[in-house]
Amino acid sequence: MARFGTNLKLTIAAEWRPRVHALFVDVLGASASEPTADLEIYHLEDGNVGVYYVGPDETLAPGDQRKGVWLEFRTEDPDAAAERLAAHGVARIDYHDREHAYFQVPGGPVFRLAGIQQPG
User: Fold this and answer.
1) Cα–Cα separations (whole angstroms), residue 14 to 10, 35, 37
2) Which residues contact 87 (CB under 8 A, 6 or more apart)?
3) What secondary structure does DSSP assign to the chain, as a single string?
4) CB–CB of 102/110 below 8 Å?
5) Which residues pair with 97 in a beta bridge?
6) CATH fold for domain 7-115
7) What is the residue-level pLDDT of the chain in tens, covering all 120 positions?
8) 25 CB neighbour count, 10 Å cutoff
9) What is the pTM for the complete model shown?
10) What's the half-sphere exposure (Cβ side, CA atoms, 13 Å) at 48?
């Protein structure tokens, strides 16, 4: 049986870079590395999100990003993370699932916050 991998690649317009960086580093607690000028890798606890920052003509418009794949980020305190996201001006998405908060990476895809399931 297949499993999800631990690496993800996004392509986002360069104008969104400061806000995307703040989302991953300041809100989600990732560390960041920059292997090339147009690529930043955000290192999370269990995987990496590589973001290629390109010209606006090389990526989907933010509205079109909502039509693509949606992601999930797990955190120990989803409510606190949702508050930090709102404080950083990250767009919350209204969705019928009321058990999770949904947001959109600036210039990128939608994601939901979920709790980290504790063993036992």
Assistant:
1) 12, 16, 11
2) none
3) -----SEEEEEEEGGGHHHHHHIIIIIT--EEEEEETTEEEEEETTEEEEEEEE-GGGS--HHHHTTS--EEEEES-HHHHHHHHHHTTPPEE--S-TTS-EEE-TTS-EEEEEEPPPP-
4) yes
5) none
6) 2,3-Dihydroxybiphenyl 1,2-Dioxygenase; domain 1 (3.10.180)
7) 998 899 999 999 999 999 999 999 999 999 999 999 999 999 999 999 999 999 999 999 988 999 999 999 999 999 999 999 999 999 899 999 999 999 999 999 999 999 987 554
8) 15
9) 0.91
10) 13
Question: In sequence order, which residues have a C-beta less than 8 Å from that of residue 41 and are 6 or more positions away?
Answer: 32, 33, 34, 35, 48, 49, 50, 51
Angle CA 31–102–120, to nearest 5: 70
Amino acid at 33: S
Q: Which residues contact 85 (CB under 8 A, 6 or more apart)?
A: 23, 27, 92, 101, 103, 113
User: What strands, in cross-sheet order, belong to the sheet with 102-104?
Assistant: 71-75, 110-115, 102-104, 92-93
| Cα 52 versus chain centre, distance | 13
